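Listing S7. Sequence submitted for prediction.
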Amino acid sequence: MRVLVVEDVHRLADDIAEGLRDHGMAVDVSYDGLDAAAKLDVNRYDVVLLDRDLPGLNGDMLCRMIIDSEDPAMVLMLTAADTSADRVTGLSLGADDYLPKPFHFPELVLRVRALARRRPTAQPRVLKAGGVELDPLRHTAIRDGRRLDLSAKEFAVLEALLRAMPAPLSAERLLEQVWDEYADPFTKTVSVTIGRLRRKLGDPPVIETLAGVGYRIIPAD
């Protein structure tokens, strides 16, 4: 899952991003509306966390731009404005959810995951293949009844591969979906994470490598 945090208070934006990354999400950050618009123009996001009071380009206008785009992300407005009128205005702009500041971070995580699940291209909540059952909302992964102890990145890589199946994902695409815009495209972190994930999944193998293409969940016979 890839998320864009748009918040002009740098410390708050960075704290939100770090917290979401700890939950296995790929997170980019913009501190103003113009930078956010530029990132939205070149990257595909599942969810945008959007402050309404932004420099450069205000959140309301940015929200309209997102909603009017060809493949709109889900929008969660984060704002200090907490009256019923403010919530109605935010939702009337096309936002999918509205969370006033200050907020409880676990609730924010649940709302982000719920919004990603509601995207028109989203798949069923529990993803299944090869004896694996992965529930992104509850953040649980099971294989043949055995609970898998996965790191945040291992979980996110498995989720990305399950969502893409039967198609493969290249290492570059996994970097884009699971890490963030600062990931080194020449790093071996994807192959290392895949290796750890394979060991934890056990036999028979669930993930295969397609030379020159990437990785995919092994199709069922």
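Caption to Listing S7: primary sequence and predicted structure tokens for the chain studied. The chain has eight helices and eleven strands. The first helix runs from residue 10 to 22.
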